[in-house]
Amino acid sequence: MTTMKNKPISFNLDNPSDKYLFDQLKGVKNFSSYAKALIADDLKRKVIKVEVGNK
Length: 55
What we know:
The protein is mainly alpha-helical. Helices cover 42% and strands 0% of the residues. It has 2 helices and no strands. The protein has helices at 16-24, 31-44. It is extended and about 35 Å long.
């Protein structure tokens, strides 16, 4: 059995920066894989800090 969790992302299309990002994603066929690849790359480069808790 596969357990899946979702982490939604929202784009405010009234915000020019968000709208630009959203428009750039129109050609991405698998957004989930794309987002996971970006997160993995950030973790490798230690761009983001991940806190591990007991939740």
